[in-house]
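testing teh design pipeline on a random one, pls ignore if ur not involved
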């Protein structure tokens, strides 16, 4: 049996089949083919999370790419868990929070420059979809919406969410409870 002409696996093939901790280790060592494998593996769920959390379709690609660039910068600090999806979602959540804070400061400055005395409140971007659930989600505060999406859509545990958002686990439980209650009230019109 001759091996002549048989295709040898490339570095990219090896990266695609590597477990997440191995990819992150390689990424920390500067091997960018590992970044491509992580991107191929996780860009779709991250894109959905960012789109649902931000509500601004123009920002989704920018935030998605910023998430992966931030992953490169912090790969050496990865905690070694089997799946890096919660870690990546946490990075995206932190970027969303920073962007919202920056946007809020900018609007506050613009309102001062305009000469108004109106104070700026945390923006609650409307989601593009016109479904009842999307409208109910858009009515939640950004912190509650993000926490709910991380738990219910991304399937993250409360401890993973607390780690990703850098908040106490009690805060996660409180936000989840309040978000679920507000959604029920909005969707069912029931007072609880």
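output:
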């Amino acid at each position: 049996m001759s091996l002549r002409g048989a295709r040898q696996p490339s570095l990219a093939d090896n990266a695609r089949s590597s477990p997440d901790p191995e990819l992150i280790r390689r990424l920390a060592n500067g091997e960018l083919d590992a970044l491509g494998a992580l991107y191929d593996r996780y860009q779709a769920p991250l894109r959905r999370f960012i789109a649902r959390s931000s509500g601004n379709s123009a920002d989704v690609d920018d935030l998605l790419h910023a998430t992966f660039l931030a992953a490169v910068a912090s790969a050496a600090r990865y905690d070694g868990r089997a799946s890096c999806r919660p870690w990546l979602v946490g990075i995206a959540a932190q970027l969303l929070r920073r962007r919202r804070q920056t946007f809020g400061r900018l609007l506050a400055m613009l309102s001062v420059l305009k000469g108004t005395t109106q104070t700026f409140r945390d923006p609650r971007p409307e989601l593009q979809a016109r479904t009842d659930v999307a409208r109910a989600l858009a009515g939640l505060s950004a912190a509650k919406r993000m926490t709910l999406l991380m738990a219910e859509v991304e399937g993250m545990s409360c401890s993973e969410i607390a780690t990703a958002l850098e908040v106490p686990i009690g805060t996660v439980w409180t936000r989840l409870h309040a978000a679920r209650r507000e959604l029920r009230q909005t969707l069912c019109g029931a007072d609880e």
